[in-house]
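Fill in residues.
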């Protein structure tokens, strides 16, 4: 689909053995997401090394920083990450950035899946896509525009608003629409990370190619499940 991910010398990126050390344990109430598939399982759309670095360094680092923040904000220890997001204005920038990074990446890993395990769009989600966008392809076009058009680092989201209607929004940095500081509030059911560390090893500056190929990793069964749960209040 579109431009193919390649290695640095123009050849398809090979599946590699583990090259990134596991992160040290992070002591605290929040836990690093256990990957629901192997790092190489999303190839060729996303290469193994990128997945390892992204999970073991970027996500793990944010998780560790969030756990460290409990020393300054003990109430974090009794909150879910969703509750942290919905009350993030009570905390400092570090909690906003690192808590957002933990929530965002937890969703990102889970709304992707290897071939053969991506499920189908539920009838209810299909109906909502037709109601709010005109159909799946129209939603994908609008979502792709939000992802490729996000200036600098950030995310694009498909969200449920409080009336259970679907919207597409972009957020900068590690913000997300669940945050009480977000200009557009809603519950994310699908999201893509367009920070350069998500794709640069294989795609270099071709963000559009990454987004185009990423659609072939989407776990529609998981997205449909999140839709069926409704907005987080």
């Amino acid at each position: 689909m579109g431009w193919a991910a390649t290695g640095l010398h123009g050849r398809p990126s090979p599946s590699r053995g583990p090259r990134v050390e596991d992160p040290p344990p992070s002591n605290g109430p929040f836990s690093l997401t256990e990957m629901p598939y192997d790092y190489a399982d999303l190839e060729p759309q996303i290469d193994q090394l990128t997945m390892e670095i992204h999970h073991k360094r970027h996500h793990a680092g944010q998780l560790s920083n969030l756990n460290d923040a409990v020393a300054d904000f003990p109430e974090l220890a009794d909150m879910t990450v969703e509750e942290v997001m919905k009350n993030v204005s009570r905390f400092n920038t570090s909690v906003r950035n690192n808590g957002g990074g933990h929530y965002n990446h937890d969703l990102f890993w889970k709304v992707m899946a290897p071939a053969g395990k991506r499920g189908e769009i539920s009838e209810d989600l299909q109906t909502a896509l037709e109601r709010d966008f005109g159909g799946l392809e129209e939603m994908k076009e609008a979502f792709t525009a939000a992802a490729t058009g996000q200036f600098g680092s950030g995310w694009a989201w498909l969200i449920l608003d409080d009336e259970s209607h679907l919207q597409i929004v972009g957020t900068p940095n590690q913000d997300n629409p669940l945050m009480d500081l977000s200009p557009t509030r809603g519950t994310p059911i699908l999201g893509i990370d367009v920070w350069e560390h998500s794709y640069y090893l294989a795609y270099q500056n071709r963000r559009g190619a990454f987004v185009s190929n990423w659609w072939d990793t989407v776990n529609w069964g998981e997205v449909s499940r999140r839709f069926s749960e409704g907005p987080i209040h």
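The domain at 45-233 is CATH 3.55.40.20 (minor pseudopilin epsh fold).
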